[in-house]
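Researcher: I'd like a structural prediction for the single chain below. Treat it as a standalone chain; there are no partners to consider.
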Amino acid sequence: MKAVVDPNLCSGHARCNATAPEVFQLDELGYAALASGGDATIAPEHEEAARDGALACPERAITLIGPTTTPQIRETKAKP
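Model: Treating it as a single chain, here is the predicted structure.
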């Protein structure tokens, strides 16, 4: 899974950081950035936190892309 933060949509609410500080940090102006230093790849153990952080964004400035690698999430998606 990868994460992308759209700087044009981010308003600096910092809810992503409050929800998932291991995935999202704030830049010097208080806008969302990836805690991985710009690497958009989310470690498998942080995928759930990335989802929670993205959902916490009122501006929907965070997009998650690609398949997950966390087995419990694959099971959830497979169920109707």
